[in-house]
Automatic annotation (TrEMBL), chains A, B:
This is glutathione transferase. It is an enzyme of class 2 (transferase). Belongs to the GST superfamily. Tau family. It catalyses: RX + glutathione = an S-substituted glutathione + a halide anion + H(+). It is found in: Cytoplasm, Cytosol. Gene3D superfamilies: 1.20.1050.10, Glutaredoxin. Residues 1-59 form the GST N-terminal domain. It comes from the Eukaryota.
Length: 210, 210
């Protein structure tokens, strides 16, 4: 979006993290890390704010302080809620496939539905989250939507449907058709394979326990 | 810090949240909420950024983009780690006082020690977090330090000591002596009473289970 040249370096997170990752993000040992002028910046939202403050073309955050606050609020909401939800969905599905406990699955699906409803409500009358152009929340949300779909496929759940969440699904389509996004989405087959392995690991954990 | 007049309104969170809170923060139903020009802003870090962008005197965040990124990184670290740690400390203490399970307590204390060590390391050669003046991280950390102390007192744990964390303790003292902070800290006795009740509730939960 900023037309800035960068070098992308893939990190192999399992089983061993690279010395470069441990050096640049010793506190969390997580990706993503942006290195600029030799100095590391960590956490997706912090990286986006840094990019926006360093390269001023095509602003990611809105200019108005209140709209900026709303963008940060929604980005935080997604950042905090979604990974937990995905883990819950994966565990609930594994649990159900190994034991007769069905209530956990229903509970996780209901939680997912509530989170998606909140997002669906936020999209009423808007083309993208936070307005008419691709911005901060969209960049955070996109991966969410993409993750949820890929994981649904990997574990076999079916929560995010067009019937129930028409605005979210329409937005996801429009967003993914933006050229800059299209060119930079992670490859779906690799993503899917990764989560299939994760789901299998969780399932064998519950099988042993059962 | 901004010399802006404001009206402070206390929220009674238990047992019933006020209609004003539910109206202004329907997503999380949490405090704090800042209302400016009739519009609500939620989440501590989002509120601080909004205040800094709206009133430009005495900047809370540093001017340099990299220093801003570091301030946001540490603020997020604290925001995400500390409440969970406090809850763990409270549960571990209650669990130990009701049953013979001592390992949980030792584990929670060790986790607390690690988190405090990370903060202690960050303070080497600095008067405040992120530099020489009270800023973003300090405003987020202060409540952390204050919370941990008050909760230690309420549950009887002893993790944050001067012997082990001299820099953190010295910083806490200097910070709390700043006039603007001194005048705005929540009353310690009220805070302490609140957490004593919480600790008692957790203890009676474990007693019933034991």
């Amino acid at each position: 979006m900023k037309s800035v040249k960068y070098e992308y370096s893939e990190e192999d997170m399992f089983p061993n993290k690279s010395p470069a990752l441990l050096k640049h993000n010793p506190v969390h040992k997580k990706v993503p890390v942006l290195i600029h002028n030799g100095k590391p910046i960590m956490e997706s939202n912090v990286i986006l704010e840094y990019i926006d403050e360093t390269w001023k073309d095509n602003l990611i955050l809105p200019r108005d302080p209140y709209e900026r606050a709303m963008a940060r609020f929604w980005a935080k909401f997604l950042d905090e809620k979604v990974i937990i939800l995905i883990l819950k969905l994966m565990h609930a599905n594994s649990l159900e496939s190994c034991t007769s406990i069905g209530a956990e699955r229903e509970k996780a699906h209901e939680e997912a539905r509530q989170l998606l409803s909140t997002l669906e409500g936020e999209l009423k009358g808007k083309k993208f989250f936070g307005g008419e152009t691709v911005g901060f929340v969209n960049l955070m949300v996109d991966f969410v939507e993409y993750w949820v779909r890929v994981i649904q496929e990997a574990v076999g759940a079916n929560v995010l449907t067009e019937g129930e969440f028409p605005l979210l699904c329409k937005w996801a389509e429009e967003f993914q058709n933006c050229l800059v996004i299209k060119e930079n989405l992670p490859p779906k087959d690799k993503f899917l394979a990764f989560f299939k392995v994760q789901a299998e690991m969780i399932t064998s954990f519950y099988k042993e326990k059962a």
